[in-house]
Amino acid sequence: MKAVFKYYKKYAHLIFASLLFLTLEAICELQLPSYMSGLVSEGIGKSDMSMVWSYGWRMLVITLVACVCSVFVGYFASKASARMSRDLRSDMFAKVMDFANEEYNKFSVSSLITRCTNDITQIQMLTYIFLRMIMFAPIMGIGGTIKAIQFSSGINALAFVIVGAIAVVVVLIVIALTIVQPKYMKMQKQIDKVNQIAGDELNGMLVIRAFNTQKHEEERFDNANKDLTKTALFTTRLMAILMPVMTIVMNGVMIAVIWIFAAKVEDINQISNMMAFMQYALHIIMSFMMISMIFIVLPRAIVSINRVGEVLSMPVSITNKEDKQTPSGVRFKGDIKFDNVSYSYGGGVPAVEGISFEAKSGEVTALIGSTGSGKSTIINLIPRLMDVSSGSVSIDGINVKDINLKDLRNNIGFVPQKNTLFSGTIESNIEYGKTQINQEEMQKASRIAQAEEFINSSEEGYKREIAQGGSNVSGGQKQRLAIARALSKNAPIYIFDDSFSALDFKTDAKLRMALNEEMADATVIIVAQRVGTIKNADRIIVLDEGKIVGMGKHEDLLKNCSTYLDIAKSQLSEEELGL
Ligand code: ADP
Ligand code: MG
Predict the structure, then answer these.
(1) Are 470 and 496 in contact (CB under 8 A)?
(2) What is the pLDDT of residue 578?
């Protein structure tokens, strides 16, 4: 909650202005009925136009002032609420960008999207309605009461009418709110769900078609959609019933007032009193209805405020430490050292345990092991996509936690296992990691990544469009572009997480050769499934169930690591193995 309220403080001047004009408007509105009553009591029965003029122009001026104020209120209120929601959105997005895996996993993507859009819109709406009405209620309520007493001609029964009407209004609102509040909570979750299923299905369109599960998926979406509709209908219907009931109450008040006055009317003064009283009575009830309007939006907005606050106040686990040991813009030599490292996802059983090894600059270090053996986990610890649970990872002898995050990541060319291209062009994707890159560097990166051939095969070349997620290039082409993107950073460290798997054997071999020649000084870490890919590595690390079970060169491992031998046997022929 607090996380959201600070945004109100920032626009205090706009809020103040809107409240000020609202107060003025309310005061003006409060004056009108008494003038009308004056006109009736003094004017009726006399054929004197000057009376009409003298009251008329005052009423006209007051109405005009009220109108102008109302415009200003609308202006300031919408400005304050729109700006606030803009800030909330951009801050929330920035915050999510800082999330590490751990925080990210606590919210689903769809929920983050709903929170960033729908929830913030709810808050914006509440702010607007609040600013538009909040001052009206007390001024109309209290001012109206004072005025009503003035015009009541000393009839006590009138007080009962008003108090009774207010009691009915308040009871109705309270009942409605208690029923509706939990539903709103449910509703935001159901919006999450609809977004989630829609996202799932749109992303998985190919699989859905291939498996002919359109019907099933449609039903799944339909169910979520129906649930949401049901809740939305229920809450809107309930709130819709409130309105006519309120009108009945108001009309009831009018009838009661006329009835009570009717018994006592003796002269024209009483009639003018009655007219004014009726107006003020309605003002009083209106003020309660406005409060109820606020209370209709409030519960939903509170749910939203909490949901947005949850994201904004989430502590980020991977942060920059204040005292850095390296100057900014540092370029490392690239000696990486793992010292007895363990990592467990969400504090459960360790995914990797007791990992110690070194990856030196100018060398190729390879990680191999069955799926789920912890390869990606290990290399994600180097650019601090996650932080070690125990042990340490260091570069050139400096713990990665003591390096400025930006510098750390600038020093690493990373190709994640699940890589993504962004919509744009081939060029914009390759130069992604670096803002200033010349044509030569770009061509070099593409050449090493073996992407040049297919880039040049189309007429647009580097200007060729890339669709969202890189869906208009093949898996292997996508992988090569992702590799070129990492290489164009010209970093001292390169990490390839299973980046060669979608390449054919020939391209794989050519790419590795080019890497060896052109990036001779770099520290290269390769995660691979194929023994052929890493056979020539300076150091091969064999993983099994999160532990290192062998380390050394290909020939040595064949002799003394049974896990490695098993993997090799399953992929290579006897001659290739040289056994
Ligand atoms: P590899 O890359 O060797 O295939 P990973 O490092 O991805 O293996 O995974 C190692 C282990 O950690 C696996 O048992 C996997 O189920 C688990 N794991 C991976 N990512 C997560 C995650 N985000 N949350 C929980 N467990 C995970
Ligand atoms: Mg992996």
Answers:
(1) no
(2) 66
Q: Please determine, for residue 551, whether its predicted confidence score (pLDDT) is greater than 80.
A: yes
Which residue has better confidence, 381 or 240? 381
Percent of the chain residues topping a pLDDT of 90: 34
Q: Which domain holds residue 294?
A: 2-312
Name the one residue in this structure whose structure tokens are 């990490």. Answer: 495
Which of 129, 121, 45, 62 is closest to 89 using CA atoms? 121
Domain final residue pick, 490, 518, 550: 490
- What is the total count of domains within the chain? 2
Of 312, 335, 364, which residue is a domain's last? 312
Phi, then psi, of 525 in degrees rounded to 5: -115, 125
Tens digits of residue pLDDT in 259-288 = 888 887 777 778 888 888 888 988 888 888
Beta bridge partners of 414: 495
Counting ligands in written order, the one closest to the CA of 375 is: 1
Pocket test for ligand 1, best of 376, 379, 499, 545 (most atoms within 8 A of CB): 376
Tell me the CA distances in angstroms from 150 to 34, 270, 280, 388, one per residue in order: 10, 12, 10, 75
Residue 409 covered by a domain:
no
Of 108 and 543, more confident: 543
Per the CB < 8 A criterion, the answer to whether 279 and 152 are in contact is no
Query: Residue 463 maps to which CATH number?
Result: 3.40.50.300
Ligand 1, atom 5: closest residue by C-alpha = 374
Average pLDDT over residues 446-463: 86
Residue 296 maps to a domain: yes
Best CA proximity match to 219, nearest among 206, 201, 232:
201
The CATH code of the domain that includes 56 is 1.20.1560.10
Report the alpha-carbon distance of residue 526 to residue 507 in Å, rounded: 16
- Would you say residue 42 has pLDDT above 90? no
DSSP letter assigned to residue 527: E
Query: pTM for this one?
Result: 0.77
pLDDT in tens, 18-30: 999 999 999 998 8
Do residues 492 and 361 lie in contact, with contact meaning Cβ atoms separated by under 8 Å? yes
Which residue from 373, 378, 541 has its CB within 8 A of the most atoms of ligand 1, so it is best to mutate? 373
